[in-house]
Amino acid sequence: MRATPGKKNATIELSRDGFTIQVVRERRRKRTVTFDLDADRMLLVLHVPAVMPDTALEDVIQQAVEQAEEYLRRRMRRRTPQNDAGLLLRAQQLNERYFDGKLTLHSIHYVTNQRKRFGSCSPTAGEIRISARLQKAPYWVLDYVLLHELTHLVEPSHNARFRELMKRYPLAERARGFLMGAAWAAGVDIAEIDMGGAEVEAEDAEAETKGAKD
To answer: Which pTM does this prediction carry?
Structure first.
C-alpha cells in the first residue's frame, strides 16, 4: 500500500483481486462515495471522505471490487477479452466456478506464436498461454480453452481424470467442434488440437533435465 499525501487530498494505492485500486481521500467530500472503473487497465479509483475510518474504508473497497467484478462479468458474458488483463479476470472467474479458487495461476497472456495450438500450460510454473487467434472467437470457445489449460494445472496429461474434469463445461462439445473447424480452415491437423498436455510434459521434463544438469 502506498500513500501520496497532497495539500487537499491523499491517495492510497493497493492491489486487490487483480485490480489496481486508488483510494482518493477528499477533504471536501462529506458522505458520498463514488468510484470510476477503467476496465482495460483493471484500474479502480475510489473517491471517499477524508475522515472515513479505515474499517469503513475496507468495506467500501470490498463492495467496489465486487461491483466492478459483477460489471465485468456482465460485460464479458457476450464479449471475448481482448487483452491480458481481461484474460486474467476470466481465468480467475473460471477458477472460482470450477475449482473453488484453489488453482495457483502466476501468469496468463495472449501469444502470437502458436500456429498449431489454441493454448498451452506449464503447470510447474503456473503459466498459461492462449493463442491470440481466440480474441476473435466467441466467448464460450475461449472459456473452453481457458478451462482446458486451467485443468492442466491439476492434471498435466489428457487422462481419464482430465476428461472427467472437462465434462463439467456444458458447451465442451460445441466448443471443440468450433475449434476443429477453425483448425481445418487454417490447415492445421485436427489431431493436434489437444496436444497441450504433451507440451506440458515435454516442458516439465526439459526443465527437470536442465535442473539435473545444473
So the answer is: 0.57
What is the rounded CA–CA span in Å between residue 177 and residue 20? Answer: 38
Do 151 and 58 share a structural domain? no
Residue partners of 96: CB distance under 8 A and separation at least 6: none
Q: Where are the beta strands (DSSP E) in 17-157?
A: 19-26, 34-38, 43-49, 107-111, 119-122, 127-131
R_g over Cα of the chain? 21
CA angle 161, 165, 167 (to 5 degrees): 115
Last residue of a domain, one of 58, 76, 94: 76
190-205 exposure pattern, b = at least 16 Cβ within 10 A, e = fewer: eeebbebbebbeebee
Give pLDDT tens digits for 151-162.
Answer: 999 999 889 999
- 109 and 206 part of one domain: yes
Residue-wise pLDDT tens digits, 23-52:
999 998 988 999 999 876 778 999 999 999
Q: DSSP characters for 21-55?
A: EEEEEETT--S--EEEEETTTTEEEEEEETT--HH
Each residue's pLDDT tens digit, 38-92:
876 778 999 999 999 999 999 999 999 988 888 876 765 567 888 898 899 899 9
- Supply the range of the domain harboring residue 56: 2-76
